[in-house]
Design goal:
single chain; alpha/beta; Rossmann fold; 6-stranded mixed sheet; 4-stranded antiparallel sheet; 10 helices; 10 strands; 41% helix; globular
Length: 248
């Protein structure tokens, strides 16, 4: 459902994403891991058509991100790292606004709202303005807007950021329930989350993919915890060696 082909993006002299390639299929939850500045969010913004690549391309549900960005956006539910919302709107009015943008009307709108409001546990704040919500509730509203059109593909950038332990458990359980029916990419710094919800993990550093395997296979290969695996692979020395080898 997602195919990434030699995707690249530069910002001036800085190469944020450097020719990455991978595929993700229905039923997979891919953990997209890397240190700050590794290129994760830039890659996600290109996949969701918020940024145009400098090189390569990608396809989502068969639609090319360069040639058919409208249908790509229709196929994706995207939760950005800093999900935009209008603070003066109530949660309900914001979700109705998203339904307008997604052309969801009539009975379909009611069904969509009846589904996502309890799914994201935002019924108690439905009539509150977004600016009055805690960070955790704002994150839940962001997740609701990503799910409201029941997309085939979900791209979630730090979906549990700002949530308390109970809320994190709820969101992880939700992702696990959806996993068999959707293609999901999750970017996170919480490695216990990767083990809890991800069937596969890609580790990226300096814009390049350095590992692509299941969490368990990575632990077995390195004979250590996933935290230690991450540290070894993304350390400056290891990352530099990986980049050099990949260019040979």
């Amino acid at each position: 459902m997602i195919r990434v082909d030699n995707l690249s993006r530069r910002f001036g002299s800085i190469t944020a994403v450097d020719g990455i390639e991978f595929e993700v299929h229905k039923g997979q939850v891919l953990g997209f891991l890397g240190p700050n500045g590794a290129g994760k969010s830039t890659a996600m913004k290109m996949l969701t058509c918020f940024l145009e690549p400098d090189g390569g391309t990608a396809a989502v549900c068969g639609y090319d991100i360069r040639k058919d960005p409208v249908n790509v956006r229709k196929s994706i539910g995207y939760l950005a790292e800093t999900a935009p919302a209008y603070g003066e709107m109530t949660v309900g009015s914001f979700l109705h606004f998203i339904c307008d943008a997604r052309a969801i009307s009539g009975a379909r709108r009611k069904q969509a709202l009846d589904r996502v409001v309890p799914m994201c546990s935002i019924g108690s704040v439905y009539h509150q303005t977004i600016e009055t919500l805690s960070k955790g509730y704002k994150r839940r509203v962001g997740l609701a807007q990503a799910l409201i059109h029941d997309p085939q593909v979900l791209i979630l950038d730090e979906p549990t950021d700002g949530l308390d332990p109970n809320q994190k458990h709820e969101v992880r359980s939700l992702i696990n329930r959806m996993a068999s029916e959707k293609c999901i990419i999750v970017s996170t710094h919480i490695l216990e989350e990767v083990e809890a919800i991800c069937s596969r993990a890609i580790i990226i550093a300096r814009g390049r993919i350095l590992a692509d395997s299941t969490p368990q296979e990575l632990k077995d290969q390195y004979q250590c915890s996933l935290d230690e695996v991450f540290q070894r692979i993304t350390s400056a020395k290891t990352a530099a060696q990986g980049l050099q080898e990949s260019r040979v």
